[in-house]
């Protein structure tokens, strides 16, 4: 990186005269009171979010988050290639920066940029920071973006970051829009184009199995499976194969709430404490503000706090979930920022279940409400919250990648943490059942026989934007809203350990789709590409998904390989010898350190994983979980004078595991 920046300085001097004639539009140190369209030195357009400050530094436009110390830089340069462009970008933004380069990889071309190359930099866990860059080619010049942000700020302001980087467009370029266009009928040729793409994507990303379903104009246009339910076994996936649908559960939970709104049990504006008097959130002032809609809008300002239900699931229950919610405090104002909270969505389901069945335990009440108000009337006969039932008969097994990037069967253990938290992501379903749900959404509350299942008003209230996720995207109540293609796309995705899914529909065109996969690495890529390919086939759009396929598959493999280089597998025995035998966290429970031959495992009670060791650039040591679908949790070794401890962090929280005797 040092020689990289030296080159940058030379290149910056060479290109400065060419760029000096034009000034970026934002004046120095301008603090913004609203989302503001701006341009770079060469006239490329972007949007700067409300609350951020903007300044110019030569050829660089530098945006600073309200918390300070976290920046995004956009720099126009002239350079021979992407590497030289990024060197110039760093020199213009911060010539003293010295982050080691972890990986440089090509990205799919899009939005009028002829070439895109991404750069990831090594940071240590104690930096609590992420740093990356992109080089985007347009004509004979380049635009470089640099992301240099504290992790807590980056997660909290993720939607605003997307507003900046997702809307950076070359001068004079307009995005492809399907506004005013009619969706084509999905005839055999178009279905064939879509399914061929799906199978190609499945193979390139190593996804063992997936199921796809499409409804159009009130009919099932397609419902089939691809690949196998579990690697090493012959059983094929079909449209009846059950998968965990994970956070797609949220939309079904809010549908149950909508039925209760229609029944007069409460309104979306009802304070939660009027429905469940024992409900608490943060403190008394915060609790008093929370209305029913706030539980499911991702707009209440609560950060993710997932580790507390994933690690401490052994004795968890709906009551303990509600007790954890009572300790949570928003980090942004209501409606100010999109912050996604699984625990608050779980609380929503339990509050709704209590309203429907006040005499029952919270979990049983929720289960009964979902069965009687959602699954039964929609004819979703295979859909269940019962994990034992779900895994009998025709069901998919979870898969993930091992530390070397090979797709292998994965453990279900961590998914069982969703049982006490199930209104957030505990539903199992199949394509045929999910298409019944999507069809009802398209028919605005009608069932196939014309019977009204739910009134339009309570149903469609869930699609009213409660908080922005970008300039063209937002979140309603358990549903995402995307207008970036010029026509409204309603969707929600789901990510469980070993499963990735998505459901989407275009209300203006009476068409929708479902995709369910049994892999949590390749499945993420396939889900995104399928969404784009679906639009391309419907509207004769530019074949961006097809063109992106090979590039994205290569990127996935390069990402895994870059991470693998830093890990010692099995864990370094000298470093392992310095670990205590047992640790305990007040919030997350215990860890038993186990040896299995040359391998070291961390046992968390309900689940366990092999760990690799890593020597960090700042001199610290980390142990990182590497078992398929349970990898990526980094425990930093600390040494006090009288005890040993491990620290685990998410973006906005820190948990200490102290040595236990």
UniProtKB/TrEMBL annotation:
Residues 195-523 form the Beta-lactamase-related domain. Residues 1-20 form the signal peptide. The keyword Signal applies. Gene3D superfamilies: DD-peptidase/beta-lactamase superfamily (3.40.710.10). Keywords: Signal. This is CubicO group peptidase (Beta-lactamase class C family).
């Amino acid at each position: 990186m040092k020689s990289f920046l030296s080159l940058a300085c030379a290149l910056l001097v060479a290109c400065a005269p060419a760029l000096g004639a034009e000034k970026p539009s934002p004046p120095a140190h301008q603090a913004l009171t609203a989302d503001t369209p701006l341009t770079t030195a060469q006239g490329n357009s972007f949007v700067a979010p409300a609350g951020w400050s903007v300044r110019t530094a030569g050829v660089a436009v530098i945006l600073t988050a309200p918390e300070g110390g976290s920046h995004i830089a956009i720099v126009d340069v002239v350079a021979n290639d992407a590497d030289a462009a990024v060197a110039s970008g760093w020199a213009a933004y911060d010539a003293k920066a010295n982050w080691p380069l972890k990986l440089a990889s090509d990205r799919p071309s899009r939005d009028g940029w002829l070439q895109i190359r991404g750069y990831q930099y090594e940071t240590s866990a104690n930096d609590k920071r992420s740093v990356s860059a992109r080089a985007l080619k347009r004509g004979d010049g380049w635009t470089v973006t640099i992301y240099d942000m504290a992790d807590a700020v980056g997660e909290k302001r993720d939607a605003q970051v997307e507003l900046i980087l997702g809307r950076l467009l070359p001068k004079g370029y307009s995005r492809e829009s399907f506004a005013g266009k009619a969706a084509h009928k999905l005839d055999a040729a178009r279905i064939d184009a879509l399914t061929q793409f799906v199978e190609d994507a499945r193979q390139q990303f190593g996804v063992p199995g997936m199921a796809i379903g499409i409804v159009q104009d009130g009919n099932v246009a397609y419902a089939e499976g691809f690949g196998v339910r579990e690697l090493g076994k012959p059983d094929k996936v079909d449209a009846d194969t059950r998968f965990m649908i994970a956070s797609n559960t949220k939309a079904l939970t809010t549908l149950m709430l909508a039925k209760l709104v229609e029944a007069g049990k409460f309104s979306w504006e009802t304070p939660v404490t009027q429905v469940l008097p024992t409900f608490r959130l943060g403190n008394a002032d915060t609790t008093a503000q929370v209305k029913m809609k706030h539980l499911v809008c991702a707009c209440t300002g609560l950060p993710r706090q997932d580790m507390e239900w994933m690690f401490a699931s052994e004795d968890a229950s709906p009551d303990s979930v509600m007790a954890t919610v009572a300790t949570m405090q928003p980090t942004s104002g209501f409606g100010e920022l999109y912050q996604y909270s699984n625990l608050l969505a779980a609380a929503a389901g339990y509050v709704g279940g209590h309203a429907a069945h006040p005499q029952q335990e919270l979990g049983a009440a929720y289960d009964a409400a979902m069965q009687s108000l959602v699954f039964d009337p929609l004819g979703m006969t295979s859909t269940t919250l019962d994990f034992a039932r779900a895994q009998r008969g025709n069901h998919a097994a979870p898969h993930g990648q091992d530390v070397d990037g090979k797709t292998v069967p994965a453990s279900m253990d961590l998914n069982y943490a969703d049982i006490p938290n199930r209104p957030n992501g505990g539903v199992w379903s199949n394509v045929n059942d999910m298409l019944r749900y999507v069809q009802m959404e398209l028919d605005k509350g009608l069932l196939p026989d014309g019977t009204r299942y739910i009134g339009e008003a309570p149903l469609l209230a869930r699609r009213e934007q409660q908080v922005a996720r970008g300039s063209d995207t937002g979140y309603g109540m358990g549903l995402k809203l995307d207008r970036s293609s010029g026509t409204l796309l309603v969707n929600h995705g789901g990510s469980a350990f070993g499963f990735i899914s998505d459901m989407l529909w275009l209300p203006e065109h009476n068409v929708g789709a479902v995709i369910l996969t049994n892999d949590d690495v390749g499945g993420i890529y396939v889900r995104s590409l399928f969404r784009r390919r679906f639009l391309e086939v419907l509207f004769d759009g530019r074949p961006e998904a097809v063109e992106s396929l090979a590039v994205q598959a290569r990127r996935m493999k390069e990402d895994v390989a870059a991470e693998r280089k830093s890990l010692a597998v099995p864990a370094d025995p000298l470093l392992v010898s310095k670990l205590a035998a047992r640790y305990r966290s007040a919030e997350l429970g215990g860890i038993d350190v186990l040896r299995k031959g040359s391998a070291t495992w961390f046992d968390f009670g309900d689940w366990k994983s092999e760990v690799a060791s890593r020597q960090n650039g700042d001199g610290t040591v980390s142990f990182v979980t590497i078992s398929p679908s349970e990898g990526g949790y980094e425990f930093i070794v600390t040494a006090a004078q009288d005890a040993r401890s491990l620290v685990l962090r998410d973006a906005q929280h820190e948990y200490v595991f102290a040595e236990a005797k």
